[in-house]
Amino acid sequence: MGERDDPGTIGRRVQRLRVERGLTQRQLAEPVYTPAYISTLESGRVRPSDDALRHLADRLGVAFDELASGHSARLVTELRLRLTEAQRTLAVGETEAAAGQYAGLLAEAERHGLAAERSAALLGLGECALETGELVAGRQYFERAEEALAGAPLPARVPALRGRAVAHYLAGELRYAVYLLETALDELNRGGLHDPDALLLLYASAIGPYMDMGAHARAAQAAEFALALAPQSGDPALVARMHRSVARTLVAEGRLAEADASLAKAAELYRGLQIRTELANCHWMRGYVYAQDGQLERAEAELREALGMLSAKRAALYSSQVAVELADVLHRRGRSDEAAALLHDVLGHLSPERGAVHSAAAHRLLGIIAEDARRTEEAEEHYVRALSLLERAGAAGDLADLCRLLGDLLRRAGRVEAALDAYRTGLGHRTAPGTTTLGPAPAQPPL
């Protein structure tokens, strides 16, 4: 059964409907109940059983759910169908249209006091905000969705919590994103709430922040758990997202063929589901895999495909991130001027609060391009800006390499003490890569 109102509200509703239909308490009660029971019920002094509500609903000519909660089953069904349609609109990349649909649904759910539908609409608005790069607004929508489900079990709140963590991650707040995800994982596993979809969503979402923090062991373990949970999930879109995330750990381990196979599975699922933005992300990741394997022409083709799909649908933040990857491939193909122009354009759309890790990657690559052209001061400026962004984000995975680049640049310029400082900073990040500062790992699922 759905949510039920308190006895006082139900009593007033029964009385209103009885009076509207011109029935006495005796006529409403007989032959099963007494007029005294109806009087007690209407005054809110007794909580009616399901059997009593079914009897009253039949006598009053209304549905059980409508009498119990004030919401007709038809209304709830209609709203859920419209939520599914909004989800489909977002999946094909029509973000602005989807946001409009979700906003309308939110207003209706709030008007009728439907907590679950209100939360679903807020989740949709949060996902739309992530697509367009409005991270603060997205985080606020996810927070409101969590509040709407405050009394629900943790598995029901996981999508909103995961959305909030992703918003913090994209804003460069890696450590806090991991804290949110690991806290939820620990509570689920220690509490015996082994919901496969909830666990799969959290493990897949943790892989990106783990990798950026240099916590490769935790990323690999999260990928292992995600792969083990996938057969238990009933959500093909979630399984596809998992394959895309797991591919990143496979690339880090040099298992490029397996990474490509994992991405092929994800892409096949997304095509079947017609989820355009996620399919674009598969092209993006495959471009990255090909770039790591030295297949630069194929990498450029995949990244351009991803960029075209994302830009056409105004996925501003994600398209900026793909552009950084594409610029790296262009530079490696000897087209540094084209790469630099692309990076300067990208930096106009990124900031320390919006895509910090990719903003740092853009400055790093601009530094390399400037260094190749013997523009030492310009290269140093870009390296220092990248270093500041990565330190703020806690992205230890890239900090050590960046310190090495900066140290080499300073050493060649004859600034030995400054170079040694850069090397020492890099060694510090290399010896304490995320895993040593994250605290104990969360409890594990019973696989």
Automatic annotation (TrEMBL):
Q: Coiled-coil regions in this chain?
A: none
CDD domains assigned: HTH_XRE (cd00093)
Q: Where is this region: Disordered?
A: 427-447
The record's annotation in InterPro entries points to: Cro/C1-type_HTH (IPR001387), Lambda_DNA-bd_dom_sf (IPR010982), TPR-like_helical_dom_sf (IPR011990), TPR_rpt (IPR019734), TransReg_Diox_bact_type (IPR050807)
Q: Which organism is it from?
A: Streptomyces qaidamensis
What is this protein called in UniProt? Transcriptional regulator
Tell me the superkingdom of the source.
Bacteria
Domain HTH cro/C1-type as annotated: residue spans: 14-67
- Sequence ranges of Low complexity compositional bias: 431-441
An annotated GO cellular component of this protein is:
cytosol
Q: Which UniProt keywords apply?
A: DNA-binding
